[in-house]
Amino acid sequence: MKNRICDIFGIEKPIIQAGMIWCSGWELASAVSNAGGLGLIGSGSMYPDVLRTHIQKCKAATGKPFGVNVPLLYPDIEKHMQVIIEEGVKIVFTSAGNPKTWTAHLKQHGITVVHVVSAVKFALKCQEAGVDAIVAEGFEAGGHNGREETTTLVLIPQVRKAVTLPLIAAGGIASGSQMAAVFALGAEAVQVGSRFVATHESSAHPNFKEAVINTREGDTQLTLKQLTPVRLIKNDFFKRVDEAEKRGAGLEELSQLLGRARAKKGMFEGDLVEGELEIGQVSAAIGSIKPAADVVQEIYLEFLETLSALQKSLQT
Predict the structure, then answer these.
(1) What DSSP line would sit under 149-169, residue for residue?
(2) Of 99, 129, 195, 242, which is least surrounded by CB within 10 A?
(3) Given pLDDT bands bounded at 50, 70 and 90, which one contains residue 227?
């Protein structure tokens, strides 16, 4: 397939694996890239030297394009960016921050820059900042999310109308039919997170992968909106956060409750009781753990089949 996103990244299939903390190491990124999509290393859970190792291993594992996702709210951003430049990474996705902060600097080094947004006003800021493409992520998504709770179905056409940049849709996408739906709304690619958590190459703990495929409708909820909004599986930790928010807990109390390394405890170490378990609503539709290449192929083939079926239905 050829479109603006495929041309920008030099990929065969407009399917991008989200750079999720604790789940997106070099093994997952290289597997997705080798399957024709775009794999991303999630740097948010890595020290700079660990990020360098993952980049080097990814380069050894694939000769195809891959990128690094950098959440701008994390510490050591300057060191992360220096590692990315020194290692010759050609694609960077930034999120959770102001796109103006790093876009010009990265582009000066020949890096393609994409920024993740949750609202039209942020998409407009991205266009002003000079990014090469935008990921518009609906509130169905896991991980860091928008406070506005705008769904993907509503967000994508609004962003498409507001900006001319190549547009990637994210949030609630784990199948080819869902991919076709957002293409109908103006997207030119999809970014998929939750479905890739439940793959063999994901660096998530096996306990977390099992929790994801056992999640059912209503088992996740957006929370911690006073800090950084995240969608979590409802476990004991979530219940304590929910109770605190309902009685009006302030930022200090919520920060203490969150503590340090809570996401690592849940997603990487496999503590399903006290850990922070970030995942999207679409986890309810994920029923198995598969190789990442199979996920890419299944989504893409179903996407093409859906488009063909729609075309045939319009001809009858």
Answers:
(1) ---HHHHHHHHHHH--S-EEE
(2) 242
(3) confident
Which amino acid is located at 161 in the chain? K
The rounded Cα 195 to chain-centroid distance in angstroms is 10
- pLDDT digit string (tens) for 46-73? 999 999 999 999 999 999 999 999 999 8
5: left (phi over 0), alpha (psi -120 to 50) or beta: alpha
Strand order in the sheet with 230-233: 143-144, 230-233, 220-223
Integer CA distances (angstroms), 120 to 62, 124, 125, 142, 282, in order: 35, 6, 9, 19, 23
Residues 295, 33: contact at Cβ < 8 Å?
Answer: no
Report how far apart, in Å, the C-alpha atoms of 94 and of each of 12, 103, 228, 257 are: 22, 9, 16, 27
Tokens for 23? 């789940």
Helix (H) or strand (E) holding 43: none
CB 182 within 8 A of CB 282: no
**What is the Rg, in whole angstroms, of the alpha carbon atoms belonging to the chain?**
18
Q: How many Cα atoms sit within 13 Å of 183 on the Cβ side?
A: 20
Over residues 273-303, the pLDDT tens digits come to 999 999 999 999 999 999 999 999 999 999 9
What is residue 199's predicted lDDT score, i.e. its pLDDT? 98
Amino acid identity at 220:
T
Sheet holding 167-170, edge to edge: 15-17, 189-192, 167-170, 133-137, 112-117, 91-95, 66-71, 39-42
CA angle 90, 93, 98 (to 5 degrees): 125
- 213 burial (CB, 10 Å; 0-12 / 13-18 / 19+) is middle
pLDDT tens, position by position, 230-276: 999 999 999 999 999 999 888 888 888 888 889 999 999 999 999 99
> CB within 8 A of 141, min separation 6: which ones?
152, 170, 171, 172, 193, 231, 280, 281
| Consecutive H or E run containing 56 | helix 48-61
In whole angstroms, give the CA distance from residue 283 to residue 192. 11
